[in-house]
Design a protein that fits this description.
heterodimer, A: alpha/beta, Rossmann fold, 2 domains, eight-stranded mixed beta sheet, seven-stranded mixed beta sheet, 15 helices, 15 strands, about 35% helix, globular, B: alpha/beta, Vcp-like ATPase, Chain A, domain 2, 3 domains, 16 strands, flat, SAM-dependent_MTases_sf (chain A)
Chain lengths: ~450, ~325
């Protein structure tokens, strides 16, 4: 596989433990990391995981850096070996006087010295309590400073693992609180692999669920995915971030749930009319909500004053963009032919989805903010017997009620409700312990199997 | 053959799940005849709590179908790694779905992945790997217990994964992985008593560009030693986690509701209302609530999962 960084790809920019998803949209673009702005032109053609050194080229409100390829990132722990340390903290006083450099001096130094090792070395040399700290707390101190002055970044290839981590860390709500352990189990229970047809209904997971399915389906087998969503546009951010080939992406038909079901039950002719002219109450609500949400998301971008689009079922270029991604002008030049082109695309997607609805699917997965029971009830007729159904929800009560309804209607067997506990460990000789904090919300998973109660044997 | 992809109909030779209740599931191999303890060929009849099932009668039936037993009914489900993990014959301690799912996610397994696993154990994790890479990737799995390897190999074959797995008898700590695997693996998983003694073999077997690594250990000392070795060999993103899944049993409960306010007032006719000694107290009114109970015995620990990335720069 070609593992070099190319313009147009999504990349993950990592600075120590900080990671950011970014679209490398043009050679002369920049990425913002806190107060630092970084020019990206030198990463093109390099390998993923390459380390770059940020070199200051202009300072102002944001410091502008260019990137240099770097083969040996300095290990700041080396500083420690030459410094003596105390045995406990009996002589450490928190009087604010231990650092003899002033704030201004440190700021100034930051502009004259480029190497984080030098900066931190100077700070340490001017700290009169550093020598009294224990070796462990010296290490901690350096780590803290390193975080601030670390001038190396790596460019990573987006993978499902990294995306799940980034989404959950940035804002768990952006992906409905779908934590990595829950997502990983959702993939297992749904049985997705390179064979079979899969049906998902997803709303509000930033595309993480279809991304996970496409990732597991791969591009060689005959797996197909129908991705139902409630709005004008599917949320595809995580899907696009995987940099899949067009051929691979075509395995997924993202369709509006109302539109495709209406076409399934009522046929195609009147459908086209209803789409552009009248909207059902339900759709109206969804559209209002999604445009309001997009407005919120875009609040701090340069073109948040774009009117919310009302045309149905276009591909949404906006949706895939993160706030910091410069948004191209493609959207505004929405000529009539463009629109027709896109309309054809959703019509083709609908047709393909309906073909698969008729064939029936090999599993059903629902990850949504809505109450899942009415959805599952409508979608179960399209699932073969003996197949897994997986429902994720952030609220336990919703799934408890869903469980009762499924049981009362005899719709599924082997129904189980799960939650997860996960914690990280600090593993060091004589200092191993669970992490002080953990992510408390795993969300809830309801799993079961479809059955046919009607047919009898013997 | 029934593992590899979704099937509609039960075929002879499939291993299927006979689902009676949530706590009563049997894995059975669908075949018309079996041998009894005298070595004679007899019709295969499976005994359940609801009576006997002639296994041959399953052939040709649709999965998910209700089947009648002499004293009740059951359902037939297609086998999959989740159900297999719940019903497989234990030859060792096994890994379960929560840990396994995280291992697949963290090792970044995709259909094209080449995976090395040691040891094979009872093959619980192997089946998940094989489902994930079916059609394109390959699993190389090793165990130092010869008959375990033979049994696992036979199961893989029976379940339709034969072309995508190489199961070998080998002590990878002392002998390393086979030479043909040098620089081949995308991901390596170790569940060994001393994974830290095999890190140099891991480094050798990972692809020239690098790859992902996972070690599973129930004990913290082994985990600690593994982390030290990983650090020594220059692995990045070394990260140890623990996962516990809880099952919640949904129940409707009737909670008795007491009213104590009447005690504040004097009773009007004390004599007649006083319950006699043997008279039953009137039933309290109840309130219906929907709640969940945790299983009485919960998994408190499985093991520590240590993940890391290796890069050759």
């Amino acid at each position: 596989m070609d593992d070099t960084i190319k313009v147009g790809q999504y990349i993950i920019v990592q600075r120590q433990n900080f990671t950011k998803l970014h679209k490398f949209s043009a050679l002369d673009s920049t990425v913002t990391l806190g107060k630092e702005m970084v020019e990206l032109k030198n990463i093109a053609g390099q390998n993923f995981f390459q380390t770059f050194k940020m070199k200051l080229i202009a300072s102002g409100k944001k410091r502008l850096h260019e990137l240099e390829i770097c083969d040996n990132a300095t290990n700041l722990k080396d500083i420690l070996t030459s410094i003596e340390s105390g045995s406990d903290n009996r002589n450490i006083l928190d009087d604010g006087k231990s650092q003899s450099l002033s704030y201004e001096e440190i700021i100034n130094m930051r502009q004259t010295l480029s190497d984080s090792k030098e900066i931190i070395g100077t700070i340490i040399a001017n700290s009169n309590s550093f020598n009294q700290k224990t070796e462990f707390s010296q290490e901690k101190y350096i780590k803290k400073k390193e975080k601030k002055y670390f001038e190396f970044i790596q460019v990573r290839k987006p993978t499902l693992r990294l995306l799940t981590e980034i989404f959950y860390r940035q804002d768990p709500e952006k992906a409905l609180g779908l934590r990595m352990d829950s997502l990983s189990q959702l993939i297992s229970y749904s049985g997705v692999n390179s064979m079979g047809n899969y049906l998902i209904y997803e709303s509000g997971s930033s595309g993480l669920v279809p991304a996970a399915f496409l990732n597991s389906m791969g591009d060689h087998g005959d797996a197909r995915l129908v991705h139902l969503h409630p709005g004008n546009f599917p949320q595809m951010q995580a899907v696009y971030a995987l940099n899949l080939t067009d051929h691979h992406l075509k395995r997924c038909s993202s369709v509006n749930i109302y539109s495709v079901l209406r076409q399934y039950y009522q046929g195609i002719e009147e459908n086209v009319e209803t789409l552009s002219q009248t909207e059902s109450e339900n759709e109206k609500m969804d559209i209002d909500e999604s445009s309001r949400k997009r407005k919120l998301e875009n609040d701090d971008t340069e073109d948040d004053n774009k009117p919310p689009k009302r045309q149905n079922f276009e591909e949404d270029e906006n949706n895939e963009q993160q706030n910091e991604v410069p948004i191209s002008d493609e959207n505004s030049s929405n000529t009539l032919t463009d629109r027709e082109e896109k309309k054809r695309k959703w019509q083709l997607d609908n047709d393909e989805a309906i073909r698969l609805f008729k064939e029936k699917f090999d599993s059903l997965t629902i990850v949504a903010k809505e109450d899942p029971f009415p959805i599952v009830k409508e979608l179960l007729p399209f699932i073969h017997n003996g197949r897994p159904v997986v429902i994720f929800h952030a609220c336990k009560e919703v799934l408890m009620e869903c469980y009762t309804s499924l049981k009362n209607h005899n719709l599924l067997i082997n129904v189980r409700l799960f939650s997860n506990f996960m914690r990280d460990y600090q593993v060091l000789p004589m200092r191993t312990h669970p992490a002080i904090q953990l992510q408390g919300n795993s969300g809830w998973l309801l799993v079961g199997y479809t059955v046919n109660h009607g047919i009898t044997l013997n | 053959m029934s593992f590899t992809k979704p099937e509609r109909v039960i075929n002879e030779g499939d291993t299927v799940i006979l689902y009676i209740t949530i706590n009563n599931m049997h894995a059975i191999e669908v075949k018309s005849h079996t041998t009894n303890k005298h070595g004679q060929k007899v019709e295969y009849v499976h005994q359940t709590a609801y009576g006997a099932l002639k296994v041959q009668s399953l052939i040709g039936k649709e999965y998910g179908t209700k089947i009648h037993l002499p004293k009740g009914y059951a359902f037939i489900l297609q086998m999959n790694p989740e159900l297999w993990t719940m019903s497989l014959p234990h030859r060792t301690q096994i890994l379960y779905t929560p840990d396994i799912s995280m291992i697949l996610m963290q090792l970044e397994i995709q259909p094209s992945s080449v995976i090395i696993e040691a040891g094979t154990g009872s093959g619980s994790l192997s089946h998940y790997f094989l489902r994930a890479i079916y059609g394109k990737g390959h699993l190389y799995t090793f165990d130092f217990h010869e008959s375990r390897v033979d049994q696992a190999r036979e199961e893989f074959q029976k379940h339709g994964f034969g072309n995508f797995v190489t199961a070998q008898h080998r002590d990878v700590v002392s002998d390393g992985f086979t030479d043909d695997l040098n620089g081949k693996a995308d991901a390596i998983f170790l569940d060994l008593p001393a994974p830290y003694k095999a890190i140099d073999h891991v480094v050798k077997a990972l692809k020239p560009s690098g790859g992902r690594f996972c070690a599973f250990s129930p004990c913290i000392e082994q985990t600690q030693e593994t982390c030290l070795q990983l650090e020594k060999y220059g692995f990045l993103e070394i990260h140890t986690i623990e996962i516990l899944q809880s099952e919640h049993i949904v129940r409707e409960k009737n909670i008795p509701v007491m009213d104590l306010s009447f005690v504040k007032q004097k009773r009007e006719d004390t004599e007649s209302k006083l319950p006699k000694r043997d008279e039953k107290r009137p039933q309290l009114p109840t309130r219906k609530i929907l709640t969940t109970l945790n299983t009485p015995i919960q998994q408190g620990h499985t093991g520590y999962l240590t993940f890391a990335t290796f890069l050759r720069i």
